[in-house]
Design goal:
Low-confidence stretches: 117-124
Structural class: alpha/beta
Shape: globular
CATH superfamily: Response regulator
CATH topology: Rossmann fold
Distance between the termini: 10 Å
Largest sheet: 5 strands, parallel
Number of domains: 1
Radius of gyration: 13 Å
Length: 124
């Protein structure tokens, strides 16, 4: 499997964004932060991003499903400050690879680096 090269973040909390950027830069060629869901979609289309890390306070489950459908080659990792098992199941059903609590930087980074789930393949 080819190592993912590009990651984009969409986060409601600047502290979470900052806590993710440094560890992600150890594994990805580029790590960018989007300001809105529209910016995220434009980034995915323009840069051939491999991983999108989305705060579910910034993107709905239907938007996660839309990303999964429209960009089948990316790994989508969701996070939320109150993530629980029900939310995890819903995000996986929407096409995400994982859903982690926002404070779980390690878990989010680990999910971003795992092989894509069945039916998904990382973009080249």
């Amino acid at each position: 499997m080819q190592q993912p090269l590009h990651a984009v973040l969409l986060q409601s909390d600047l502290g979470v964004t900052e806590s993710l950027i440094a560890p992600l830069r150890n594994f990805f060629l580029s790590v960018r932060a989007a300001r809105s869901y529209c910016d995220l979609r434009a980034d995915l289309a323009e840069h051939g991003t491999d991983v999108a890390i989305l705060d579910l306070e910034m993107a709905s489950l239907s938007e996660v499903a839309g990303l999964s459908h429209d960009f089948p080659g990316i790994c989508i990792v969701c996070n939320h400050r109150l993530a629980d098992e029900e939310m995890w199941t819903a995000t996986l059903n929407a096409g995400a690879a994982d859903c982690c609590p926002s404070h779980d930087t390690r878990g989010i980074v680990r999910a971003a680096l795992l092989p894509a789930p069945p039916g998904h393949s990382l973009a080249a």
